[in-house]
Amino acid sequence: MSTDKHTGRTAAVVGTAAAAVVASLTSLAPSADAQDLDAAKPKPTVVLVHGAFADASGWTETAARLRHQGFKVRAVANPLRGLDYDTAYLQGLLKGIKGPKILVGHSYGGAVITNAATAIPDVKALVYVAAFAPDKGETLGGLLEQHPDPSVPPLPQQAFQFTRPDGTTGTEVMLDPAKFADAFAADVPAKTAALMAASQRPIAAEAFGQPAKHAAWKTIPSWALVAKKDHAIAPSLERFMAKRADAHITEVNSSHAVMVSHPDVVGDVINRAYRATR
Questions:
Q1: Which uninterrupted H or E stretch holds 159?
Q2: Residue 241 belongs to what H/E stretch?
Q3: Are 129 and 48 in contact (CB under 8 A)?
Q4: Strand pairing of 203-204 and 169-175?
Q5: Whole-angstrom Cα distance, residue 215 to residue 217?
Q6: Distances 105 to 1, 6, 24, 30, 115 between C-alpha atoms, Å
Q7: 10-residue block means of pLDDT along the chain (278 residues)?
Q8: What is the C-alpha end-to-end distance of the chain, expressed in Å?
Q9: CA 174 to CA 232: how far, in whole Å?
Q10: How far apart are alpha carbons 186 and 261 in whole angstroms?
Q11: How remote is the C-alpha of 44 from its chain's centroid?
Q12: Which end of the chain, N or C, is less packed with Cβ atoms under 10 Å?
């Protein structure tokens, strides 16, 4: 009988200890409610900023994928009036978007998000898509001159002048529509590239000479997509700026219009930025 009592006491002790271990592990694991709350947590707004010789419609496929994944998306109509003007415009728009934001800049749009983001406290990440990422005091024209690449042909730019309402003369720059595809969108279907050439938006010439006043990549985590077949910004320059920014770099065999030809890759990089900063 004493053995039975001892055995009973031992079983009771073991059972109590096992229950304590289970309770401890359960307390460490997130509850179903907590998991549901995390899954239901709103994702940041992804703000897409196009560059020169493009418009917001270039983000259509990327935006559709992001919206399907639960992101709120804003594709900005970048004015292309110059870095100072476009920065102020973007900052005004961003102040009206509540909650966390991921800023995505293509080409010249990268310079705009770099210059604008430091004034917006809830920007979680910067994503550069075949984009400029200047340092404070740098101009885009200066970067292009300091980092030449003989393998990249000169852009087929066309300039035209117009008279502003105050009587002064403005200069705009666009790409020769006949050479647009080779320079900007070589891996985009021909019909799409032709429409892009016809609808391209010119950029004010002064945009290439205005120095950046801020370099947001110094304080905000950054991701960069380098287009290895880019004929608008040399891939070597894209790579240099991305490494300098300590960005997480992805490379893709793409023309400059990577958001049109590879929207899945662009969306994947944006998702990586989201997962790393949520």
A1: strand 157-163
A2: helix 235-244
A3: no
A4: antiparallel
A5: 5
A6: 81, 73, 47, 36, 11
A7: 43 42 40 46 95 98 98 98 98 97 98 97 97 98 95 95 96 98 98 98 97 98 98 98 98 98 98 97
A8: 62
A9: 12
A10: 9
A11: 13
A12: N
Contact between 45 and 71 (Cβ < 8 Å): yes
State how far the alpha carbon of 62 is from the alpha carbons of 11, 217, 223, 255, 257, in Å: 61, 23, 16, 16, 12
By the 8 A CB rule, do 172 and 158 touch?
Answer: no
**Tokens found for residue 168:** 């002064």
- Global pTM? 0.86
Looking at residue 191, its pLDDT comes to 97
Neighbouring CB atoms inside 10 A of 78's CB total 25
Task: Report which residue type is found at 79.
Answer: P
Q: Identify the CATH homologous superfamily for domain 41-277.
A: Alpha/Beta hydrolase fold, catalytic domain (3.40.50.1820)
User: What residues have CB less than 8 Å from 147, skipping those under 6 apart?
Assistant: 234, 236, 237, 240
Tell me the two tokens of residue 46. 């992804």
Question: CB under 8 Å to 153, separation ≥6 — which residues?
Answer: 183, 231
Predicted local distance difference test score (pLDDT) of residue 40 = 63
Contact 102, 123 (CB under 8 A): yes
Pair type for strands 101-106 and 123-129: parallel
Mapping DSSP to helix (H, G, I), strand (E, B) and coil, where does residue 235 land? Answer: helix
